[in-house]
Design brief:
The complex is a heterodimer of chains A (about 100) and B (about 325). In chain A, about 15% of the residues lie in helices and about 20% in strands. Chain A has 2 helices and 3 strands. A 3-stranded antiparallel beta sheet of chain A has the order 2-1-3, with helices on one face. The N terminus of chain A is likely disordered. By secondary structure, chain B is mainly α. Chain B is globular and about 70 Å long. Classes of the chains: A alpha+beta (about 100), B mainly alpha (about 325). The interface between A and B is medium-sized, with 23 and 34 residues. Chain A: InterPro entries: PaaB, PaaB_sf. Chain A: It holds the Pfam family PaaB. Chain A: This is 1,2-phenylacetyl-CoA epoxidase subunit B.
Amino acid sequence: MTDEQPSVRAEWPLYEVFVRGKRGLNHVHVGSLHAADDQMAVRHARDVYTRRNEGVSIWVVRADLITASSPDEKDPLFAPSGDKVYRHPTFYAIPADVPHM
Amino acid sequence: MTVSPQPDERELLEAFESTIDRNDRIEPRDWMPEGYRKTLVRQIAQHAHSEIIGMQPEGNWITRAPSLRRKAILLAKVQDEAGHGLYLYSACETLGTSRTELTEKLIAGAQKYSSIFNYPTLSYADVGTIGWLVDGAAICNQVPLCRTSFGPYGRAMIRVCKEESFHQRQGYELLMTMMRGTDEQRAMVQESVDRFWWPSLMMFGPPDDDSPNTAQSMAWGIKRNTNDDLRQRFVDMTVPQAKALGVTLPDPDLVWNEERRAHDFGTPDWAEFQQVIKGNGPCNAQRIAHRRKAHEDGAWVREAAMAFAARTHEPEETTHDR
């Protein structure tokens, strides 16, 4: 399958789909689908992922345009935040009788 | 799975197994044993194909629905099955296969789908029975799969399960409506239940002592329950529903066992099950032929859309090159 040149017979490209469930919420990744172009991807996303009012807005993006961190570099990539416990509110001891903290 | 892992592979395997042991999810870009990947591709593909082939027995009745209400419901239901197939193909593609490849394997008969869809739908009551029993059995199978160890599969199952409840309820309501009708309609319901009961029990797969993959699948967290456990759960759920509906389940051995706090029931005809799996069920050839024809007849549409997309993108790309 991988040696197939782009042609009319090739499989439609893969898109990742993100849906905003309602106003005030982030778009959330819901899955993927195939479409010939961006407009068709939006229409297909509506039919596949929002048949029951699950969304008020849809983003689609070609899967091959996404850059992701690799699981192999998971430790070094996220290590800088590992030893910075002072970034969390619970690092600071405050007497229990101090209100609104 | 590799027989003797290399040192670094041993480390990867340990990381994989500790993720499973923590009841955490495996995600697509994680390292995984080849056997885990293969088992998932086989199971998810089979599941996706079942949804897609599953459109046929009911789609058969869309043009002959008895009312506009029933027609709209059935259309929505069959559209959902297409959607479920697409969620699952999408999950399966994260394992490095492609939908085209899976479709080609289906129409070549190289991958399977649920045996239940090889039985014909002979009356409109079958639409109700499929919703009640077939989708009911599917729910029993699928609810535990929401917690399966492979992230994309579990997420697809959550979407599917949310929608499956509508399928079961519309079927049961349809049957209730017929049971309130004439003697002839009640007989139609009973006849339909008689045909679908045993094939529904077979949907859970062979008995545990004849299911060689179950132990490994459960160790990997792909399956959460054995076939027989789920079958028992389905029978126990369905008996009171049958009573409320006023139909008889066609099994003389079906009886409440106070000691086990569960129903005893008869043994499905496993020889028939094996025949259907092997391709000798009443509708196997018809289902695959129909799917192949739809795929081939749609080729020009897929190609035209690609050609259109290529043309509309041309000017943009030329500008970019300058």
